[in-house]
Write a structure and sequence with these properties.
The protein has a two-stranded antiparallel ribbon. It has two domains: 89 residues; 36 residues, no CATH class. The radius of gyration is 19 Å and the shape is flat. With 125 residues, the chain is mainly alpha-helical. Strand 1 and strand 2 form a beta hairpin. It starts with a helix and ends with a helix. The protein contains four helices and two strands; from the N terminus they run αββααα.
């Protein structure tokens, strides 16, 4: 069983990480009220020449991928913070067993125990 101090430290670290990710996300995107999350990737403007257009498209594509990674990470952090608040942080969502402290130290957003994660990976191969 995780002690309260460790869970509080994990929560504090996750809140700091969330704050940094939100700042990074704001650097990569701009407000757009037509999008579900009111944000859209910024499109760089280098010029009208073909090589400049190619560079713009390449940078925009990279930015869109980075945004998706940040969005997924934010979802994982929010889900983890929610589980901490509910008191179910170290409970596996598949088997209801306890998630080991070592696993949570290595991956604080883990929502499954090693055994269930391994089974899922083997099924998806």
């Amino acid at each position: 069983m995780l002690d309260v101090k460790k869970v509080e430290k994990i929560k504090k670290d996750l809140l700091e990480r969330k704050k940094q990710i939100l700042a990074d996300f704001n650097d990569l995107s701009k407000e757009d009220l037509h999008e579900a999350d009111n944000r859209v990737a910024k499109f760089p403007e280098y010029g009208d020449k073909p090589d400049e257009n190619a560079q713009e498209i390449s940078e925009y594509s990279t930015t869109v991928v980075a945004e998706k990674v940040l969005e997924k990470t934010l979802e994982e952090i929010d889900s983890t913070l929610n589980r901490i608040e509910k008191g179910t942080y170290n409970i596996c969502k598949y088997c209801g067993g306890e998630i080991s402290e070592k696993r949570l130290e290595a991956r604080p957003t883990a929502s499954s125990c090693i055994e269930c994660k391994t089974k899922l990976q083997e099924e998806n191969e």
